[in-house]
Each structure stands twice: as C-alpha cells, then as structure tokens.
C-alpha cells in the first residue's frame, strides 16, 4: 500500500513538473512576441526616424556563388502572379517595373529562412503613401515597405524599410526618388506546432543602403494596414512577393540565399 501511494506521489510530482514546464513555455512564448500596444498602428505622433545619408548609389553588386538569382534584368522566368499566371510587369534596361493593375508578383518557388537582396527605385509621384509605394513580402505575409521616404513624410511604421505597421526603421537611410536603393534582409520564419500553435515568432534584420535599420526585430504577426493581426499557422516555405500598389516602382538584381539549416 505504501509502495502504491509513493508511486502515485511520484506520478503527481511528475505531472506538476510537466504542467509547470508547459506554463513556463507559454509564458516564454508570450514574452517573445511583443505587443507594441504603446503605439497605435500607423501613429503619426510616433517619432520620425533620424535621416542618415547612405552615400551615393553604385552599380549592382554581383550575387554570391551560392545565391539563387531571382531577377537578373532579362526576364521574369522565376515569377508569376498570385494566381499562378505569367507575370505582366514590364522588363527593360535591366530592371522590372510595376504595371498598374497587373497585380502583385511572387516567386514560383517557396522559401523559409532567407538572406534576400533586392534593389529598387521609387518615383516621386505624389506624397505620403502615394509616392513610390510597393513592398517586399517575405512568405507573402510579412512586409518590408518600399516607398519614397526622402523628404516625404508619412506615418513612421509605413515609411521605407519599416516592417509595415509594426516597426519604423531605426534611421531613414533613403536616397532621393529615382535613385537605386538596396535592401539586404535576413528573415527567420515563424514555427508552428502540429496543432497550429505558434512555437517561435518570425524575426527580421534589414540593411537599407548598407545601413542597419531593423535589428533582429520580433514580428507580432502578419503585417497589415491599420491592424496587427495575430499569427496564423502556415507552411514552412512560401513565395516571396513584390507588391503592385499602382506606382511605377522599379526592381533589379534580386537574389536569395536559403538559410534553413544555418
């Protein structure tokens, strides 16, 4: 009888340990995902990032040997519409250009953890969000904003190099409109368990024209306009996407290195 009682005690203690571990895991995950509740989405009273001159634009840098070149200036063979149809953006003079109404384009291949290099040029076509608006979407879900942000004021979490609706860039490293700009993005995808619960949130680091503007920030969930939705389970590899926001933004020299396993 004593033996069975002691056995039940050990089982009870083990269950308590498991419950405590689960609670700690939940608390740890909650601590990983920031709320950003101190700021409204697209709050115009949020401090504007200080301006930093990144220096003049240079010629496109050649990709590293282990990179997959997604656009070399000649064709859109790696790209398609979000409905799987041939991409209809214009290609000329070594760049592709958004065609108003043609829709976003995405890679035919899916990616998870990546190092992504993108070069872009925005026109000076208006003001605020209507000046060279586009976006680089990781996994079709998490946007690094593209915008003319050189002397063009908008809400800080929507300017160039912001994680849209979440994080303004640390500094504004924008060149004037019409000049080529670079994004070097390190993206670590979110992880979900078999039941679809979040295990590890996404993180992103961004260099804009060689200047660190997002330092391994933790994403609160998908990026969105005027809201911050929570994570929703998705596949471990999804396409990269470039946005059609009705502005003739240009892109060139796009390459990616897969970091899964690194």
Task: Give a short synopsis of this structure.
The protein is 12% helix and 30% strand. It has one helix at residues 2-32; strands at 68-71, 79-81, 90-92, 95-97, 105-111, 114-121, 134-138, 142-146, 181-188, 191-192, 198-200, 203-208, 211-218, 238-242, 250-258. The strands form 3 sheets. Strands 1, 3, 4, 6, 9, 12, 13 and 15 form an 8-stranded antiparallel sheet that branches.
Short key terms for the protein model shown above:
Jelly Rolls, mainly beta, eight-stranded antiparallel beta sheet, 2 domains, about 260 residues, about 30% strand, single chain, 15 strands, 1 helix, globular
Description:
The chain is mainly beta and 262 residues long. The protein has 2 domains: 1-32; 38-258, Sandwich (Jelly Rolls), CATH 2.60.120. It is 12% helix and 30% strand. The protein is built from 1 helix and 15 strands. The protein has one helix at 2-32; strands at residues 68-71, 79-81, 90-92, 95-97, 105-111, 114-121, 134-138, 142-146, 181-188, 191-192, 198-200, 203-208, 211-218, 238-242, 250-258. Strands 1, 3, 4, 6, 9, 12, 13 and 15 form an 8-stranded antiparallel sheet that branches. The chain has a 5-stranded antiparallel sheet with strand order 2-5-14-7-8, with no helix packed on it. Strand 3 and strand 4 (95-97) form a beta hairpin. It is globular. Residues 4-25 have low confidence and may be disordered.
